[in-house]
């Protein structure tokens, strides 16, 4: 009985997480808007404990901000958040790619090819959530191949905190297809054991992600910006 209660608790928590993430990404819940514990408790027929657990996780992922005596509100995204996150991400992942290029095995390369082929299929289907999950597998593989556990840990902590930014970037029109194109170039650099090119390509891909998000944020706020970068042969 206790096991069933725990499983139900975990399942409901996942449903709450998915419901709030989707509402924020689709714009149903807007920055600064309060997310009501009582409403969620009534909707899912549960106590507030799993809801508060979900709020804490969503706060760690950058979706919510929990304010004392006010509760949970949708966190705002700023251009500065985007620029700073992608600047750090590009440096750390680029360095991991540079090291991995010298260590990449044929098996690793085959796995990267398989993952990217799967990403191409998912992009054609327009399944952003599945793309996001498999996209992580691609990056995790070459980061692990770098053999630097401390570096991998730092990158993991960073990307978890900014999952909202990363998912929002992939949700922009054409972004998934661009990601697949860039991955092909990265795989080629790994196959040639060209660490410098792999580093540059990973950094450039991060720059595209940042530019796409900044362009979209500006559009939402009625501002004009230059068109985001497109893939180039760097």
For the biggest sheet, the summary is: 3 strands, antiparallel
What is the CA-CA span between the terminal residues? 58 Å
Specify the CATH architecture of the largest domain: Up-down Bundle
Q: What's the number of structural domains?
A: 2
Beta-strand percent range: under 5%
What is the gyration radius calculated from CA atoms?
19 Å
Helical proportion?
over 70%
Mean pLDDT: 87
- pLDDT below 50 for ≥5 consecutive residues: which ranges? 1-7
Helices and strands in order, then pairings?
Elements lengths: L1 H25 L7 E2 L1 H8 L3 H13 L3 E4 L3 E4 L4 H25 L2 H20 L2 H18 L3 H13 L1 H8 L4 H17 L3 H26 L14
Antiparallel strand pairs: 1-3, 2-3
Helix pairs in contact: 1-3, 4-6, 4-7, 4-10, 5-6, 5-9, 8-10, 9-10
How would you describe what is shown here?
The protein is mainly alpha-helical and 234 residues long. Helix content is 74%, strand content 4%. It has a three-stranded antiparallel sheet. Helix 4 (79-103) runs antiparallel to helix 7, helix 5 (106-125) runs antiparallel to helix 6 and helix 8 (163-170) packs across helix 10 (195-220). The model is unreliable at 1-7 (pLDDT under 50).
What's this entry about, in short?
This protein is mainly α and about 230 residues long.
Features:
mainly alpha, Four Helix Bundle (Hemerythrin (Met), subunit A), disordered N terminus, 10 helices, 74% helix, Arc Repressor Mutant, subunit A, 234 residues, elongated, 3 strands, three-stranded antiparallel sheet
């Amino acid at each position: 009985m206790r096991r069933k209660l725990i499983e139900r608790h975990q399942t409901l928590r996942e449903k709450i997480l998915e419901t709030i993430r989707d509402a924020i990404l689709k714009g149903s819940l807007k920055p600064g808007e309060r997310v009501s514990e009582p409403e969620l408790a009534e909707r899912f027929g549960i106590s507030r404990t799993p809801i508060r657990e979900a709020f804490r996780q969503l706060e760690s992922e950058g979706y919510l901000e929990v304010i004392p005596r006010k509760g949970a509100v949708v966190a705002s995204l700023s251009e500065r958040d985007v620029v700073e996150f992608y600047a750090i991400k590009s440096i750390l992942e680029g360095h991991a790619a540079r090291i991995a290029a010298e260590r990449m095995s044929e098996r690793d390369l085959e796995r990267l090819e398989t993952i990217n082929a799967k990403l191409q299929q998912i992009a054609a289907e327009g399944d952003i959530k599945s793309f996001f999950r498999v996209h992580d597998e691609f990056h995790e593989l070459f980061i692990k191949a770098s053999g630097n556990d401390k570096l991998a840990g730092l990158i993991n902590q960073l990307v978890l905190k900014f999952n909202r930014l990363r998912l929002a970037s992939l949700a922009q029109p054409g972004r998934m297809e661009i990601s697949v194109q860039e991955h092909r170039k990265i795989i080629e650099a790994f196959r040639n054991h060209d660490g410098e090119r792999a580093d540059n390509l990973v950094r450039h891909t991060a720059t595209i992600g940042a530019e796409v998000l900044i362009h979209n944020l500006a559009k939402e706020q009625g501002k004009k910006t230059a068109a985001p970068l497109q893939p180039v042969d760097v």
